[in-house]
Write a structure and sequence with these properties.
With 395 residues, the chain is of the alpha/beta class. The chain is built from 13 helices and 15 strands. The protein has a 7-stranded mixed beta sheet, with helices on both faces. It has a 4-stranded antiparallel beta sheet with strand order 11-12-15-14, covered by helices on one side. Helix 3 crosses helix 9 and helix 10 packs parallel to helix 13. The longest helix is centred in the first third of the chain and has 20 residues. The two termini are 38 Å apart. It binds pyridoxal-5'-phosphate (PLP). Pyridoxal-5'-phosphate (PLP) binds next to helix 4.
């Protein structure tokens, strides 16, 4: 249905089910980037001739677009970054490091939301707490509240959607409880915007990280929403050109947000491409997108249930996008190789979420992750290839 919007599919006969890693890009995104480089390539916020003004205007229009896309209160709250990894590292370093005794994360975090805390010297015995999960990978709210009671000066950093298992965590409930205890909440939204709409005001999050390349946009671009009350408290973590009001050999004075946080030449083409990706989603509409994905996700789950010796880790409750599983007695890496030979692109391994793999006592999983353009035929091809691979490995 939507594949014709994405040139990758006319140039490739791959059944692409690795959307958790990155999504394909629609022609409109590629066109927007090409248009920038071929018609008005100039730096932003510096020079005042025609194409430079246009570049600045297009760049800032995307900030406006993101502001309204996630219902943020003002333009100042939207800061461009390279992606979710950079956003988390930025907040970890420029805000959390010296302010909070404890960081609380969920069990389903990506390494991007674990390693930065370890780099601060935090671990399970000192400054880092991990919320338990149940047999369907649901977030344990009772445990969460106990952790908040035990650690009065906490920063909560939580993924909205697990990249490995597709589990959606209830962010609204998490912020409500966290705020009751005076904790501040950051959300890793790498896997959310491609599947459903996000309203940062309704969720009442303090920080929300988004990723361009997981949302039909270019690689190397993302953004972070910072609630207004934190804009002065967060220190810029890089400074230099474009962040300053005035510089003498004596001292530098910084501009206000967002500019004080955006040092150096920005990924202008990336921002413009990201804007086109968000317009693409807007044109389709989240309701249509989400309904189709829910149907597809249920279908994928049902088809997997028919496979002998399948080991699933969660059902479809509060889940979207990624589906992880194993086949008893078969190494996931072998399945990856045999699916590749049959032109099916999935991911096998730990999915940058080693701690939850260890907790589940597995080395990794086979993960199929869907996006808007996937079809039931894609899933049928995947299941057929999977059955063939299992047959070969069991012989
Ligand atoms: N968090 C999650 C849940 C992810 O899935 C990923 C990427 O796989 C990241 C963070 C890192 O995002 P980015 O590639 O935008 O740095």
């Amino acid at each position: 249905m939507y594949k014709s919007d994405f040139p990758y599919f006319s140039n490739s006969d791959i059944t692409y089910l690795d959307n958790g890693a990155t999504t394909q890009k629609p022609q409109v995104v590629i066109d927007a980037i090409t248009q920038f480089y071929t018609h008005y390539c100039s730096n932003t916020h510096r020079s005042s001739y025609g194409s430079a003004n246009k570049a600045t205007m297009e760049f800032e229009n995307v900030r406006k677009q993101i502001q309204s896309f996630i219902n943020a209160s003002s333009l100042e709250t939207i800061i461009f970054t390279k992606g979710v990894t950079e956003s988390i590292n930025f907040v970890a370093d420029a805000f959390v490091k010296n302010e909070f005794d404890t960081v609380i994360i969920s069990s389903l975090e990506h390494h991007s939301n674990i390693v930065p805390w370890h780099m601060q010297g935090r671990n399970l015995h000192n400054g880092l707490e991990v919320v338990n999960y149940d047999s369907n990978l649901e977030f344990d709210f009772v445990h969460f509240e106990q952790l908040l009671q035990k650690n009065p000066n906490s920063f909560v950093s939580i993924t909205h959607v697990s990249n490995a298992f597709g589990k959606i965590q209830d962010i609204k409930k998490i912020t409500k409880i966290a705020h009751k205890y005076g904790a501040v909440v950051m959300v890793d939204g790498a896997q959310s915007l491609v599947h459903f709409s996000v309203d940062v005001k309704d969720l009442d999050v303090d920080f929300y990280c988004i990723s361009g390349h997981k949302t039909f946009g270019p690689t190397g671009i993302g953004a972070i929403y910072i609630k207004e009350e934190y804009l002065q408290k967060v220190k810029p973590y890089q400074t230099g050109g474009a962040t300053i009001h005035e510089v003498t050999f004596e001292k530098s004075t910084l501009l206000d947000s967002p500019y004080k946080f955006e040092a150096g030449t920005q990924n202008i083409a990336g921002v413009i491409g990201f804007g086109a990706a968000l317009s693409y989603i807007e044109d389709i509409g989240y309701e249509k997108l989400h309904n189709w994905e829910v149907e597809l996700y249920e279908y994928l789950h049902e088809q997997l249930l028919n496979i002998e010796d399948i080991e699933l880790y969660n059902d479809t409750t509060n889940a979207i996008g990624s589906k992880s599983f194993n086949i008893k007695g078969i190494n996931h890496d072998d399945i990856g190789i045999l699916l590749d030979k049959q032109k099916v692109a999935i991911r096998v391994g730990h999915h940058c979420a080693q701690p939850i793999m260890q907790a589940l006592n597995i080395k990794g999983t086979i993960r199929a992750s869907i996006a808007l353009y996937n079809t039931k035929e894609d899933i049928d091809k995947f299941i057929k290839a999977l059955n063939r691979a299992i047959g070969m490995l069991k012989d």
